[in-house]
Prior knowledge:
With 274 residues, this protein is an alpha/beta fold. Helices cover 36% and strands 17% of the residues.
Amino acid sequence: MDSMGSTGSGDVTVPVKGGELWAHDSGDPGGTDGGAGLPLVLLHPGVGDSRIWDGILPRLTERHRVIRYDARGYGRSPAPTAAFSLVEDLTAVLDHFGVARAVLAGSSMGGATAVSLALREPARAAGLVLVVPGITGADDLVPVEFMAELGRLAEVGDMEGLVALLRRTSGAAVTGPDPEVEAHLRAVIPAWFANYPHNVPDPPAYDRLGELDVPCVLALGELDQAEVVRVNETMARRIPGCRLVRLAHSDHFPTVREPDAVADLILEALPGAR
């Protein structure tokens, strides 16, 4: 058995070290791919909470058990009050749902967490779908100029300035009004401030990608920041057997820009997981 424990569906509060998380388990849909298939765990980016997956969720839950959750401070999860690690929280979620092994689909920050778990506990990762993934240990992933401007805007509490900065960099695929992406950004920026004093970075993974032994597909957004594209290309080269997919119309929000393409990648990866 690749999963154990309860597969009941619904919203759940998951206890984690020094806090709790909101999570949702879609339950076993039954049918050919239901009970016999591996659970799918969705990990959201830093620029959106778990609602970033809403547009593709119905296609995923139709035939698969899907678990998603909000990282601390995001969405429906309370802000942290103690030190925490993203990969340790993911492990706690898997343990809570009795999942011994799963396919992990992670976007940006969530992609970094998925890779960290696959390196830390290889037996628990049956497959990786990395969507514009981040990665720990890549010093050139975020430009110095961007961090300086981000820090300046954060220091004065300029929420609209932060949204505009992220629109120019991470959301460049749309030059006009972009209410959906702006709503995601406004919802998560408070989590950045709440999490910063408590989030303990997971160990560097960039130089360890060659150790991964798991089916993997990596999707980059051609319209994403040049630094992210470059790091994503390097990640795909370093991960043994990784398939690189280029999303021509996506920036750092592929689930918003090309939801069907992202859903296709995840659904194609599930049968090949081991």
